Amino acid sequence: MLLLGFIVAKFLFQYFLYNPHYDLQRDEYLHLDQANHLAWGFTSVPPVTSWISYIIQMLGNSVFWVKFFPALFGALTILVVWKTIEELNGNLYALVLGATCALLSVLLRLNFLYQPNTLDVLCWTAFYFSLIKYFSQEKQKWLYIAAIIFAVGFLNKYNIVFLLIGLIPAVLLTGQRKVFNQRSLYFSIILSLLLISPNLYWQYINDFPVFYHLKELTRIQLVHVNRWDFLREQVFYFIGALPVIIAALYGVLFYAPFKKYRFLFWTFLFTLATFIYFRAKGYYAIGLYPIYISLGAVFLGDILSKGWKNYLRPVFLVIPVLFYVLLFNVFYSVESPEEILKNREVYQKLGLLHWEDGKDHVLPQDFADMLGWKELARKVDAICSHLPKGTQTLIYCDNYGQAGAINYYSKNKTLKAVSFNADYINWFKLEKKTDNFIRVKDFDSRDEEFQKTSPFFNKSYVADSVNNSLAREYKTTIFVFMEPKIDVNQRLRSEIEKEKKHL
After folding, report:
1. Do residues 96 and 39 both lie within one domain?
2. What is the pTM of this model?
3. What is the predicted pLDDT for the residue at 138?
4. Residues 449, 361 within the same domain
5. Which uninterrupted H or E stretch holds 196?
6. Among residues 84, 85, 49, which one has the least CA distance to residue 70?
């Protein structure tokens, strides 16, 4: 009943955090649109997200279902934390402590957004759980289960490869290296490779776009990552559970019942060191922590069960609750954009206004990325409704957020927005002649765009723009070009070929 209570609380908390002041987030639109283009891989992510998006689409594509699956993966993460504590013979206090720390953490923020990160954290946690089960029971089936979990994680987000980079040398440093003498380990590796092979083949026939994506990510975003900021973020993510995580690291080194799991101390260090070396974003490492919450809860549950230490039990339960209450309005989108502006200094001191471009802005990046999308789609719909009937319209956007938002919110489902950005470059449909060309353009180069494109059409005008000054897409402009003087589709095919050569 306690476990059920935590799971119900998880779902209630996630939906409570939904604020109608905001739209969906930029990345969510791309992931939802992938349901219309099912494949074994995408430029931005592996295929699992598209499969979940297809289920969401079958269920009606409403915001309820968009938010349901991240909440579900978060609830399952709590379940795995609970089951790990049971496997380690943790008492009732340990179960409650572990579940509380997992519930009142950055996972509430992470599980709010429909992104691969939510399933990624679940797969990391479940993989470590399988290893603990294997080294506890030495039953070969757990190696196969771990292999399947890794494959699911890999097909969801390539980030899980960092788990192995940190794990393998850690196991080699400890007595658990004997696992490398087990034939079942290599059979499980083969099983995992077979499961991920369709995606590897897709990468091969498409010239491994993942490497281009990583190169662009490094050039545009990771170059701005400060390694000290990465470490600071690790503290903030599970700040209420920090004493429990520290207890876990102490426990796997010195607590006798954890001797089999000593490799997890080195795993922690090697994995963090790898992320720091590659200037990874802070949230890439979130999957590392839930299993240590389990270990720390069991260790504290034991050492605090005797004598005067028993009185310290409530302290470790109060800490995550206290930090959750103190940081609630800051870390979650329950505050309206206007209220955030009033308390801008608080957000700035905590580094929450620092974006991936290395600069501070007026709102946290995720929040600014949840504004202006409905407005953009509504205005594009209104513009298209006044175009001549019987004509063919193509909507070309600067980025995947614009294209995805238009496709998600548009009332006219015969219209489909595309872009050269991310996966949309592969989704152009140019079989029918284009009569009207709608151009959605970022503010920075809109004048240049109008001057460059208008000579190819008999009619052209600036139709509208995004007026929400707090949106990341503020001043994004909608151009209308009509009665083309050239074959628009042929020109686009040529531009697509040029663009793909650079990928």
Report:
1. yes
2. 0.91
3. 87
4. no
5. helix 183-205
6. 49
104, 207: one domain = yes
Sign, CA dihedral 439-440-442-443, equals positive
Tokens matching residue 240: 């209420």
Report whether 252 contacts 264 (CB < 8 A). yes
Per-residue model confidence (pLDDT) at position 344: 79
Q: What is the maximum alpha-carbon separation in the chain?
A: 87
For 39, half-sphere exposure in the C-beta direction (CA atoms, 13 angstrom radius) is 20
Check whether 349 has a pLDDT greater than 80: no
What average pLDDT does the segment 124-134 reach? 97
Q: Which two tokens stand for residue 270?
A: 């090697």
386 and 325 in one domain? no
Rounded Cα distance between 133 and 202, Å, is 34
Q: How many CB atoms lie within 10 A of CB 196?
A: 19
- Total domains in the fold of the chain: 3
Q: Which pLDDT belongs to residue 331?
A: 67
Distance between CA atoms of residues 439 and 222, nearest Å: 30
Which residues are paired to 118 by β-bridges?
none
* Model pLDDT for residues 172-228, shown as the tens digit of each residue: 999 899 999 999 999 999 999 999 999 999 999 988 877 776 766 666 655 556 778
Domain of 387, in residue numbers: 373-501
Question: What count of Cα atoms within 13 Å lies in the side-chain half-sphere of residue 268?
Answer: 19
Instruction: Count CB neighbours of 267 within 10 A.
Output: 27
Q: 396 near 437, Cβ under 8 Å?
A: yes
3-state SS string for 91-104: CHHHHHHHHHHHHC
Pair 274, 268: CB distance under 8 Å: no
Contact 224, 215 (CB under 8 A): no
Q: How far apart are CA 422 and CA 49, in angstroms?
A: 15
The whole-number average pLDDT for the span 402-423 is 90
Same domain, 296 and 355: no
Q: With contact defined as beta carbons under 8 Å apart, do 184 and 140 qualify? A: yes
- Residue 333: is its pLDDT beyond 70? no
Q: What are phi and psi of 51, to 5 degrees?
A: -70, -40
Bridge pairing between strands 417-419 and 477-484: unpaired
What's the confidence (pLDDT) of residue 422? 86
Q: 399 and 294 in one domain?
A: no
Question: Looking at residues 97-109, what average pLDDT do you find?
Answer: 92
Are 186 and 324 contained in the same domain? yes
Helix axes 290-303, 63-87, angle to 10 degrees: 40
Nearest to 364 by CA among 374, 372, 375, 354: 354
Total number of residues shown for the chain:
503
Token readout for 304 is 């605090």
Structure token pair of residue 188:
């499980």
Residue listed under structure tokens 């996972």: 107
Which letter, b or e, does each residue of 423-436 get, where b requires 16 or more Cβ atoms within 10 Å of its Cβ? bbbebbeeeeebbb
pLDDT of residue 328: 74
The reply to whether 30 and 162 lie within a common domain is yes
H and E: helices and strands count for the chain: 23, 5
